[in-house]
Design brief:
The chain has about 160 residues and is mainly alpha-helical. It contains seven helices and three strands, in the order αααβααββαα.
């Protein structure tokens, strides 16, 4: 046990860390094969799910709204464009800006795969958690994410 671990929450932290990582790995083991069975990679699914029911986004907005890194986004968009699911359009307000939006085929794919995937994942969550617990877990995970985003040298 680390020095002052009881005072700093070290013991509690260690009891949370491993189950958090194990839950993430278990989620990915179910989530990713299902997404692939729908004909998409996880990154492609993320982009389609984010663009669905929108008028489109800039690459910057899309990068900020998805889990796809900026370096990976261009390749993902290229492959989605080749599949006829997204298109790149010049912005009407600023010709230097490109808007990424789903094509009509992309919107149809969004409706099919997102509903399918939500219905696939829902039972895993509902079997383990009540609606109230899901709300609490969401708040706690967002708080933890914010702590990592802020880093150690930035106070709350």
């Amino acid at each position: 046990m680390a020095p002052n671990s009881k005072d700093s929450g070290g013991e509690s932290f260690l009891k949370v860390l491993r189950p958090l990582v194990e839950a993430y790995f278990s989620f990915c083991a179910r989530d990713q094969p299902h997404i692939r069975s729908l004909g998409l990679t996880p990154s492609q699914f993320d982009v389609i799910a984010t663009l669905g029911d929108t008028r489109g986004m800039t690459c910057r907005q899309l990068s900020e709204a998805t889990l796809v890194t900026k370096g990976t986004l261009t390749g993902v968009l290229d492959r989605l464009e080749a599949k006829g699911l997204v298109e790149r359009l010049a912005s009407r307000e600023d010709r230097r800006v490109t808007i990424i939006q789903l094509t009509s085929e992309g919107q149809e794919k969004f409706r099919k795969v997102c509903a399918n995937h939500i219905n696939y994942l829902r039972p895993y969550f509902e079997r383990a958690l009540t609606a109230a617990e899901m709300g609490t877990l969401r708040e706690l995970l967002l708080r933890l994410k914010e702590s990592f985003d802020r880093g150690l040298n930035q106070p709350f």
